[in-house]
Structure formats: C-alpha cells, structure tokens
Amino acid sequence: MDTIAPRFARCEAARNAGAFVLGVLSSLETKNCWTMAELSGHATPDKLQHLLSRAKWDADDIRDDLRAMVVDAFAERDAVLVIDETGDLKKGDKTVGVQRQYSGTAGRIENCQVAVFLSYASSKGHALIDRALYLPKSWTDDRARCAEADVPDDVGFATKPELATTLIERALDAGVSAQWVTGDEVYGADPDLRKTLHDRQVGYVLAVRRDTVVPTDGGPMRVDALADMVSEAAWQTMSAGAGAKGDRLYSWAWLTTREDPGTGECSVLIRRNDDTGELAFYRCYSPHPVPLATLVRVAGRRWTVEECFQSSKGLTGLDQHQVRTWTSWHRWTILVMLAHAFLAVVTAAQRTREHPNPALIRLSVNEFRRLFVALVLTPLHAIGHRLLDWSVWRRKHQRRAQLCHQKRRSQPQ
C-alpha cells in the first residue's frame, strides 16, 4: 500500500483502497463492497463504491506498480509471459461486456463476461500482471450501450489475440525481462500475434489445433499427419514441470518446419500422454537455437496461469465483482490482482527463508493466506465492528428496494 498510495489524489481514497485490498485478502466467503465495508468498520458501502466508480485515480498506474512488483520478485532472463482468457458468469445484460458466449471456465456457452489476462512466470513464482476486457461486437456496434457502461469512445472491437498482442507489447515496452510467450490454441492460430513476436525476437511455444497446416520439406502438412510419421525412437520422455502428484511426464517429438521468420528457427512440438495416447501440438519459434528441454519447459509454464486464475478467484475474489461499468471493472480487477500478487510474492519469499524439511510440503499461497488472515487480519479487525448498525442499515436498504419494486409492479403498463 505504501507503493501505490502516491497514485491517489486524496488520502481518503488511498485508505479506502487499503480497506479494499485487506477485504479481498480476508476469509470472507463473498467479497463485495457491502461485505468488505462491514469488515473494515465502515458504516455503509458508499466509500468502497465511490473508490471503484468516481474517485480520482488511474488503474493503469496501479497496473504499472503491480507489474514492477511481480517482475522484481520473480525476474529471470528466460521467464515466460503466459496469455489466457477466463470467463465470469453474470446475470442480466447491463454489466459491461456481458453476452451469451463460450466460457472456458464453464466449458460451454453461458451468459458471461470474458477477459484476457497476462501472467509472468519463472522458476521463482508466477502472478497476473495485466488484463484486458473483451467486448463482443454486440457491444462495440451499440455505442449507446457502451456509453451507458462508461466505455471510452475510442474503444472498438478487438479479438482476443489482438488483446493479447497489446498486453504482451505493453509488458515488453515496459522492459519486462522475458524471452518466451506461451498460450493456448486461440493464440497459436493467430498469424499476426506470431509475426509480432518474430519481429520483436521473442520466442514462443503456442498450442495449435490438430488440423493446423504447417510448411514442411514435403509441402504443407497437417500437424496430426506429422505425428503419424514420427518413429517410436524419436519420442523423448521429459517432465513439463512438477504437479500436485509429481512430475508431469510426457513423451515429446520435435520437428523443424520450413517457415521463414527472418531470423531464428520455427518448429512443431508434439506432446503425447503415454497413458491415454492423447496428443497436443505446439508451434514454436526461437530467435536462437535451443534444446528440446527448453521448449518443453516453456510449454509446461502454460499451466501457471490456470493456477493464477484458481487462486485469485478462490482467495481474492477476482470473479466476485458486482460492478457494471468499464471503469469499475478495471479498478476492481487491478486491486484484486495486486492483492493476489502480494500473496504470491510474499509466499515465494518465505519459501526461501524456511529450512528444508522433508516432512513438510513447501508453503503454498493458500496456506500463507490462511496464516495471514489468522495472525494479521483477525486481530486487526477484532475491534470496531458495527454489526448491529450494519444489520439496521442493510434492512433499511432492502426495505427501500422492496418498496421500489412493488411500486413498479403496481404501475399500469
């Protein structure tokens, strides 16, 4: 909070931001302006709602502070930028960006809001460092609807790969130390994203569909046809990183393609699950020759963004926002990402201080948050709760809402 306090025009806004961050770090089951204001001893949720909607501060400034904090803690020369999107289920049609669309979180088409996130991952740790809200054409083609949701006039339609390219370029322009980018099939299929990485001499390992066609010495071929041509002796067993049950061991095949990136090498990486026989495919580029183990390591880093989504939603309420406008969404997400990054950075620092104990697993973000709540937040919030005042205020608010609803129902159509 000392780092970001200068970003606020008034000290009251900085204090409210502190209350917000402590609220999303807390063990509250539901995190919204009401519950977090009650936890902080505020008489009403007005201060936190004002912070998200009308207070004078720029979420992009906090994003820069967040990125610097994460990179300073986890910086490595061969770190990886991981790109992915996630969806939050929402009701109604007023929340900015909401429509019926596919959500990977739900695994089906739902009424939801989708955003693209960028995370920074190295052997030291990983955390989210940037985000971009996806606006479907049903929104960008309706400027009156966008104006109602506070969407800036210069924001138009952009595909998810275009949003990802913007996030990656913004991080690289800020001097982020990273040599690789990885992502799923949505991003591996986009030629403009790959060209941008070629031009900037940044390597990538991007997943692609099995029907993707690549140039080879024998002419254009589908990647699944290439897999059929790989001899059994060409497969190499390597770990894609440690999982909850141990090393994620797969067999890997690596084939050079005939693409001309200008400088560097292009190839196709094939991953085989030896238990099920399932195959996964990646298009790869490296500015300089690298061994197979390096590409496997980069491919394995893609799972870190899923861990970020799981912990930031489960621990800090990334998906629990009840805001509708463009400004409020960007402010909510950046403060939640800041709180999550605090957990990730301090947990990683504590791991380096602990003496190795073979009887214990390493300290997790979940366990650190549990200790932080018990030892810091609970004593901090033990005094000053106004439970009875809040009960009265909440019942008055609900009564007003009930009367307004009944009045609308009673009016003639």
TrEMBL record:
Residues 7-214 form the Transposase IS701-like DDE domain. It comes from the Bacteria. InterPro entries: IS701-like, IS701-like_DDE_dom, RNaseH-like_sf. It holds the Pfam family DDE_5. NCBIfam families: transpos_IS701. PANTHER family: TRANSPOSASE (PTHR33627:SF1). This is Putative transposase. The lineage of its organism: Bacteria, Bacillati, Actinomycetota, Actinomycetes, Mycobacteriales.
